[in-house]
Design brief:
Length: about 450
């Protein structure tokens, strides 16, 4: 019995437990049982708020088949449609919920009592005994030389969770390959309803297990994470470009300014470059943190943003100083490292807060939710930029002004903007307004790029 309203799947009066996303997938397949559902449509419906790898769908289908007692080679419930997707092929009887006074969404799934193999398979998974552990443990620790072998190991890990996570870990012990096996058990626990915790800290081979887990998750989401880093770089670059061009036009029209029209293009290029580099660093670190972690997500995103922003900031600071000394002989105190750390941390915190409901993949909000995410990240970065300027730390605009003042005859001095604001020079209010605007634009553009969902 499948009841979408009550979100319950039962057979013979016994509940068959599924994680929410897999339950949604089963309901979706049943609702569209008259057609073969394309994989793309499944991702758009079931994983609507996150980006996952193609293997996530294969794993979900495998779990549904195991729960229903189905066989992929002779399917009773879910049939694979080659190079397209899946179709639910079992007989379905719709029922009315008269107590609710309306047509319900309940569907009863035929038990197919003649399929004894499917029934015995489901019984082994849900109600198996300790004798079932050893064959699965041997499959779990076996080396995986190809994708099929890796899928077999994942299937064994999921079955062990269904039998009992604590007992599986106890039986696993420290046999050969236990660290890699523990990592796989840790990874699959999120996809099996009722699975127990799989600790890594203070366990034998903790470092090796953690490394295996990171490599496992990175390998699965490496391509989408790299694509997100690129789109984050583009988003940050476009934000910097727009900010630089706008600042250039303000400088041109400011009272007492002698800046030529070309200054808008120059400032736009500088802003675009800085935004793209910052977006690439922070976006890559956030994508990697999101790809490799499932627990304590907010903490790891905060840490990832801090590391990415700091790495880019310190590298840019060193390079800028070297270029100025080598090419024009200008020696001035430049920032970058501290500013990168603070802005990266703010971006990570804003992203974690805005996408706190996402789980199981790379967050990809849509429509208004995406704009809300961009707005929240923009505000977080604006507040960080405000704190930096109040602490006398210059961002891009302040750095350009400092370099221009130290260079004889430069036309990029931002003093006229200060007069436009009401200050005689590039004072604290000018630094605050420009810096806060930079932070707002950077966070907004970074978020739009980071949450871009390829069609």
């Amino acid at each position: 019995m499948l009841s979408p309203r009550q979100r319950v799947l039962t057979r013979g009066g016994r509940e068959l437990r599924l994680i929410p996303r897999y339950f949604d997938l089963l309901v979706f397949l049943v609702e569209h049982r008259a057609e073969a559902v394309h994989r793309r449509d499944i991702f758009d419906r079931v994983w609507t708020d996150v980006i996952v790898s193609d293997s996530a769908l294969s794993q979900a289908i495998r779990t549904l088949r195991r729960t229903l007692g189905d066989d992929s080679r002779d399917p009773t419930y879910i049939r694979t449609v080659s190079r397209h997707g899946y179709r639910f092929v079992s007989k379905v009887i719709e029922e009315a919920d008269e107590n609710a006074g309306e047509q319900s969404n309940e569907q009863a799934i035929d038990d197919h009592t003649g399929d004894e193999n499917a029934r015995s398979s489901a019984a082994r998974v849900v109600g198996g005994t300790e004798d079932c552990f050893e064959p699965l443990l041997q499959r779990l620790v076996a080396p995986a030389s190809n994708s099929a072998a890796e899928e077999d190991r994942r299937d064994a890990a999921e079955r062990l969770h269904a039998l009992g996570t604590a007992q599986a870990l106890k039986r696993l012990g420290v046999r050969r390959g236990h660290a890699r096996a523990r990592a796989l058990l840790r990874d699959t626990r999120w996809d099996v309803a009722g699975a127990g915790p799989v600790p890594l800290l203070h366990q034998p081979g903790a470092a090796a297990a953690a490394a295996s887990l990171i490599l496992l998750r990175l390998g699965r989401l490496a391509r989408p994470a790299a694509a997100r880093a690129l789109s984050a770089s583009i988003g940050g670059g476009l934000a910097g470009l727009c900010g630089g061009i706008f600042g250039g036009f303000v400088l041109i029209i400011a009272p007492g300014s002698q800046a030529p029209p070309a200054v808008a293009a120059v400032l736009g290029i500088i802003g675009g470059f800085c935004g793209a580099v910052g977006g690439a660093g922070v976006g890559a670190s956030l994508s990697m943190a999101e790809a490799v972690t499932r627990s304590h997500r907010a903490l790891w995103l905060l840490l990832g943003g801090t590391i990415g922003g700091g790495a880019v900031g310190y590298a840019t600071e060193w390079l800028a100083r070297a270029i100025l000394v080598t090419l024009v002989g200008v020696r001035i105190p430049l920032g970058g490292g501290v500013e990168g750390v603070v802005m990266g941390a703010a971006a990570g915190a804003g992203y974690a807060l805005a996408t706190r409901g996402a789980a199981g993949g790379l967050a990809a909000p849509r429509g208004r939710d995406r704009l809300k995410t961009a707005g929240l990240m923009g505000c977080a970065c604006a507040m960080a930029a405000l704190a930096l300027t109040l602490g006398n730390h210059a961002l891009v605009g302040g750095t350009i002004h400092a370099v221009a003042k130290a260079s004889a005859g430069s036309q990029a001095v931002l003093t006229p903007i200060g007069r436009l604001i009401g200050e005689p020079d590039f004072g604290p209010w000018t630094r605050t307004v420009i810096g806060t605007g930079e932070g707002l634009l950077f966070g907004f553009g970074l978020a739009l790029g980071l949450t871009y969902r390829p069609h």
